[in-house]
Amino acid sequence: MNADLHCHSSASDGLLSPAGVVRRAKTNGVELLALTDHDEITGLAEARNEASGLGVDFVDGVEISVSWGADHTLHIVGLGIDTGNEALRAGIAGVRSGRDQRARRIASALENVGICGAYEGALRHAGNPALVGRAHFARYIVELGLVRESRNVFEHWLAKGKLGYVPHPWANLADALSWIRVAGGVAVLAHPGRYRVARTELHRMLAEFKEQGGEGIEVVSGLQTPAEVHECAGLARRFGFLASCASDFHGPDESRVDVGRARSLPDNLTPVWVRLR
Ligand code: AMP
Ligand code: MN
Ligand code: MN
Ligand code: MN
After folding, report:
1. How far is the CA of 268 from the centre of ligand 3 (A)?
2. Nearest atom within ligand 1 for CA of residue 168
């Protein structure tokens, strides 16, 4: 089964329109697709409509930004959410509301290291002015010609600890999980292998996530190496998590893994889609 349960459109920091993501997924053979924009659900109606025309099974999703522990940012994917649920809508609206001020702070941090006009530049790259994120800053800096690829911008300026990084208070984990739960969704921890935490802290994160209602983790993610996939498969078995499979696709020339082209799930796991249809 070709399932891709995490990708982005121009409603957040993806490069393609919601319908464009679905068309590309169809071309790549996807049978079950979830669009999961950051803190945003406005792309889902268009995507669902396109998917229904193309005969692709579609799941409404969202990727919620969460602050956890001392200074970690986690991403929680909600799958099969009721997009009309007021608690979820209000919750993610609250998460989005801090983004503009954060963007201004990122821009002024970048200005301090000689990169000017970044707020306006990032906004120009944002398909949704309510959802300016670091990926839009990265595209602006690539456009300036300072580095070749978005990922180099993160290495030099935007990753945690770099001069253009601004800490930001996102949702707390319990709130994000409760929004997903009341909206009837399944909560999945995105790309567990990518958090820069020690193993004991990762285990604590997973235990807390599970205790508060988290049901699945991304075992396969376009962001994870084969070694990380292997490790996450072990963690899913050990903690009893459903396993998700995702490209985390953002755009054709930007993402290493295309939509629908992530590897398949390792054996001896229960796929999260048993809960989705
Ligand atoms: P934000 O929610 O604004 O902090 O942006 C997070 C997004 O930035 C991620 O979803 C990716 O799209 C992008 N991103 C984060 N780290 C990297 C990286 N090292 N290389 C490329 N893109 C990244
Ligand atoms: Mn992103
Ligand atoms: Mn993420
Ligand atoms: Mn993502």
Report:
1. 25
2. 4
